[in-house]
Amino acid sequence: MATSLYDQSVTSYLQTLGAVAGFLKKGLAHCLETNTDPNEFVEARLYADMHPLRFQICSVAHHSLGAIDAIKAGLFLPPGQLPPHDYAALQKLVADTRETLQALTPAEINALAGADLVFQLPTLKVPFTAEGFLMSFSLPNFYFHATTAYDILRMKGVPLGKRDFLGQLRIKN
After folding, report:
1. Long-range contacts of range 21-24, CB-CB < 8 Å, 24 or more positions apart?
2. What tens digit of pLDDT does each residue of 84-106 get?
3. pLDDT number for residue 1
4. Which domains does the chain have, with CATH numbers?
5. How many other C-beta atoms lie within 10 A of the C-beta of residue 126?
6. C-alpha radius of gyration, the chain, whole number
7. pLDDT higher for 142 or 83?
8. What's the whole-model pTM score?
9. Where are the beta strands (DSSP E) in 11-140?
10. Per-residue exposure over 69-98, b if at least 16 CB sit within 10 Å of its own CB, e if not
11. Rounded to 5 degrees, what are φ and ψ at 101?
12. What does the alpha-carbon distance between residue 30 and residue 159 come to, in Å, rounded to a whole number?
């Protein structure tokens, strides 16, 4: 059985976005239990030269819904200046991204197969097909940023395990 573009992208995004929503929720619960302001986590980073949790969560949205929107437009740009989100706004961004992705139909996404897309950097244009962009750029970046967000929360003491990262498995019915 062939795997569709929708299955490769939207269902994968939704599975991991569900996990991200879950570990952000556990992060908030941990803060309530430990009397910690969850906004202290927003600018937390693994290393000084890495971006903070706020950037990681915004990038998860940018490399999922933002990638689908870019394919539709034929152009993907790096994210611009990020707004100063607090913890609740990060949770809302994930919820809104999930809701919008859930509204997409397989037919709508599968119709994008073979579409041309340019990744535009200030001094470089990188040409892709929809599939090449999703599989070699968007999804790897999406998983990197989701993993880094998970790791930041773990570093801050949130009790997370592998199951929290996996999200809802797509088991056979």
Report:
1. 21/91, 21/94, 21/95, 21/98, 22/164, 22/167, 23/149, 23/150, 23/153, 23/158, 23/160, 23/164, 23/165, 24/57, 24/87, 24/90, 24/91, 24/94, 24/149, 24/153
2. 899 999 999 999 999 999 999 99
3. 54
4. 5-166 (1.20.120.450)
5. 13
6. 17
7. 142
8. 0.94
9. 75-76, 116-121, 124-129
10. ebbeeeebeeeeeeeebebebbbebbeebb
11. -65, -40
12. 8
Q: How many CB atoms lie within 10 A of CB 160?
A: 18
- The mean pLDDT of 144-166, rounded to a whole number, is 95
Written as one letter, the residue type at 59 is S
Strands 116-121 and 124-129, bridge-based pairing: antiparallel
> What pLDDT band is residue 2 in, cutting at 50, 70 and 90?
confident
The residues, any chain, with a CB within 8 Å of residue 2's CB and separated by 6 or more, are none
Q: pLDDT tens digits for 39-78?
A: 999 999 999 999 999 999 999 999 999 999 999 999 999 8
For Cα atoms 62, 145, 42, give the angle at the middle one, nearest 5 degrees.
90
Tokens, residue 2: 């062939």
